[in-house]
From TrEMBL:
Alphabetical UniProt keywords: Disulfide bond, FAD, Flavoprotein, Glycoprotein, Oxidoreductase, Signal
FAD-binding PCMH-type domain residues: 72-240
Family: Belongs to the oxygen-dependent FAD-linked oxidoreductase family.
Coiled coil: none
Protein name per Swiss-Prot or TrEMBL: Reticuline oxidase-like protein
Annotated source species: Glycine soja
Cofactor: FAD
Domain of life: Eukaryota
GO MF: FAD binding; oxidoreductase activity
GO biological process: cannabinoid biosynthetic process
Record-linked InterPro entries: FAD-bd_PCMH, FAD-bd_PCMH-like_sf, FAD-bd_PCMH_sub1, FAD-bd_PCMH_sub2, Oxid_FAD_bind_N
Pfam families assigned: FAD_binding_4
Keyword presence, Flavoprotein: yes
UniProt-listed Enzyme Commission number(s): 1.5.3.-
């Protein structure tokens, strides 16, 4: 009898523990797993379950499109505001083992909500703490952590040099972790990304050499959310002239029958312009001038040339004379100031 009692107690205890484990929710298991995988950098203060007060604050602060903060919008089970690479590794490993999807938010704007909304149970891995930009002018490169915006990349680059730049997007609030694009010089930013540091699906930290060229090619095709969690990018600079020239010309479809033809002509020549010249077209709906009750389309041609105004005027009038660009339209400024001009800030807006 004395032998049976301890055996019965042991079996009962094991049954209870197994039952408790099976009754645990995926979130509880995820949280426990994350605590075990975040040493020596404790993650407790950077882990925000849905019912916590800090969750509400972070969700409101970093949800840039508030339509996705409506009561009916899907909410993450938790938000992880990672402070160390071990937090990223733990989030990936623990989400995978508990069947929870990850949404990765790098800190820039996300109008579509792709980084913080999902139709299945998910957690948000928030990377905004990883925001350093380490500039190496001597070697013409810099390491950019994924939480930095491209505006911060431009600013820190210009702090160190007036003739180094990086071909990226026109919107300074875009996060470097998920977006780089093309402006002028027929150079895409992906051609100037020369290394990366990421956490793969198994929680391993990889660079270009260890991940291989196929994966390195893939992560540059629109962010790393599908192929790993990007921690940082290594980029190389391009050289720009000390002064660049910009212009902004607006044409109204209501008043100028030729405006439609201008857009068509721009479509024909935009990819054939001089490599230092870039012209963008934007459309807007405005009030009519002849009839206030009638809306019309305003077309804005915005240009950037890596050089002086008289050179740009000659090139534009040679390839796009229909635009009617005049010398008074051409404004010279340092390249860093042109990044604000492109985002429609007034001329003279401080860069800091």
């Amino acid at each position: 009898m004395s032998t049976i009692t301890p055996l019965w107690f042991l079996l009962t205890t094991l049954t209870f523990l197994l039952s408790a484990t099976s009754d645990s929710s995926p979130l509880e298991n995820f949280l426990q797993c994350l605590s075990n995988h975040s040493r020596p950098f404790n993650i407790k203060s950077h882990l925000h379950p849905k019912k916590s007060l800090t969750f509400i604050y972070i969700a409101q602060t970093h949800t840039h499109n508030h339509r996705f903060y409506a009561p009916t919008a899907p909410k993450p089970l938790a938000i992880v505001t990672a402070l160390d690479e071990s937090h990223v590794q733990g989030t990936v490993v623990c989400a995978k083992s508990n069947g929870i999807q990850i949404r990765i938010r790098s800190g820039g704007h996300d109008c579509e909500g792709l980084s913080y909304v999902s139709d299945v149970p998910f957690v948000v891995l928030d990377m905004f703490h990883f925001g350093s930009v380490d500039v190496d002018i001597e070697n013409g490169t810099e390491w950019v952590e994924t939480g930095a915006t491209i505006g911060e990349v431009y600013y820190h680059t210009a702090e160190r040099s007036g003739v180094h730049a990086f071909p990226g997007g026109v919107c300074p609030t875009v996060g470097a972790g998920g977006h780089f694009l093309v402006v002028a010089m027929e150079i895409s930013c992906v051609d100037n990304i020369i290394d990366a540091r990421l956490v793969d699906v198994n929680g391993n930290i990889l660079d270009r050499k260890s991940m291989g060229e196929d994966q390195f090619w893939a992560i540059r095709g629109g962010g790393g959310g599908s192929f790993g969690v990007i921690h940082s990018w290594k980029i190389k600079f391009v050289f720009v002239t000390p002064k660049v020239t910009v212009f902004k010309v607006m044409r109204n479809l209501e008043l100028e029958d030729g405006a439609k033809g201008l857009v068509y002509k721009w479509q024909l020549i935009a990819t054939k312009l001089h490599e230092d010249l870039f012209i963008r077209v934007m459309h807007d709906v405005v009030d009519g001038t002849q009839n206030a009750n009638k809306k019309t389309i305003q077309v804005t041609f915005i240009g950037l040339f890596l050089g002086q105004g008289d050179q740009m005027l000659s090139l534009v009038n040679e390839s796009f004379p229909e635009l009617g660009l005049e010398q008074s339209d051409c404004i010279e400024m340092p390249w860093i100031n042109s990044t604000l001009y492109w985002f429609n800030y007034p001329i003279g807006t401080p860069i800091a």
